Amino acid sequence: MTSAQVDDKGQGPHATGVDATTSAEGYQRALGARQIQMIAIGGAIGTGLFLGAGKAIAKAGPSLILAYAIAGLVIFFIMRALGELLMYRPVSGSFSEYAREFIGPFAGFVTGWTYWLFWVVTGITEVTAAAQYMTFWFDIPQWVSALIFTIILYGVNLISVKLFGELEFWFSMVKVTAIVGMILICAGILTLGFSDAGDTASVTHLWSDGGFFPHGIKGTLMTLQIVMFAFLAVELVGVTAGESKDPKTVLPKAINTVPWRIAVFYVGALIMILSVVPWTEFSPGVSPFVEAFEKMGLGVGAGIVNFVVLTAALSSCNSGMYSTGRMLRDLALNGQGPKFFTKLTRSGTPLVGTTVSAALMLVGVWINYQWPGDAFTYVVSFATISGMWAWIMILISQLRYRRLADRGDLPQSTFRAPGAPYTSVFALAFIGVVIVMMGIDKDTRISLYCAPLWALILGVSYLVLKARNPGNKAFTGR
In 51-75, which positions are buried (b, 16+ CB within 10 angstroms) versus exposed (e)? Predict the structure, then answer.
């Protein structure tokens, strides 16, 4: 596929015959700056923070703050690498397209299908989690809530991308408001001393209860997979490139907000919570936000946090339906998936891909209802490694693109990643360390067992499709 740098309206070389409101792939450019910014913010805030941080605090203590800060820097390197590629050619297929162009057809095939599976699995877990959260207020069967949520989000994604963006905007607004509110409450307790925790709240909790590294450096390293899982979906802003009104202006602004988002919502929130409540009083598997509210004597906190995590789960499922349909259509447009996935509705949304993905999410909800044991947990554990695969492909694609651009074979991007190639190499090495830690930890090791099986399935599928389509550029790379 021949590529060129985008023009001032964010249109690529394939955009002949389309206006500024339509992308080269036929999508409607309906996502504005306000929506893209909140999608970018919401992608960095999910159940990994609201729920997963409890287990990480128990493992690392206050040093979890450092783990989030370093991982956040790596995420910024990844996002700037993605930004450089997006300004070279903003397409809805995003990193799957870039892997196909700069690494090879098989890399694009694996990336597209793996990212699709990642969001299907994530959607299954999140809609099921959302149904569980509903039982906090209502005594209704879990499957009923799961069915209702899936149907509503499916309908939203089919109506228009603008409606998806608007819903995601408000989901993200709830999460942002909750974290900012928590930070302000904690700051008030530290300075004014109100609430039940007022007498004991102190920043000295960050180093006085066993030190900043109470379980040593190893304890901190063992939380890296939990930390990186919390950041999964931050790359979703790249999938919106083909439907952004002004991608050349909006996407760089959204990506450049990554450092302060992580500094405030992860590092800032943890500093405040762990200063008000000693890390030794948090329990694994329980939201630190809920426990912090309880320690402060603010009983309404449990209900508030339950609403927030419900919103986070629905936000993730909403994003999953959005991205799965686009990934399947991108694969189909490139000859690496069934042609019926290319069909769009009148409003420019991928009908068949979204429908198939939503149907699989419903099947997954039923499976989870019938067999909530270890078998389903093993499938879910695959989400982390498959999500990181997309990051690896982004970084390798950016390194190869930069080499070609510096050589003059391709136009330079208007949004070059600072410090590259060194920052991209560092990020790849960091992801390698995380994968090693996943192999050491018995709780996450299963995800590494699932990866070869999925790779085998994709490898066989690719060979079969290639044999049936000899000479197809989707498999020859020409």
Answer: bbbbbbbbbbbbbbbebbeebbbbb
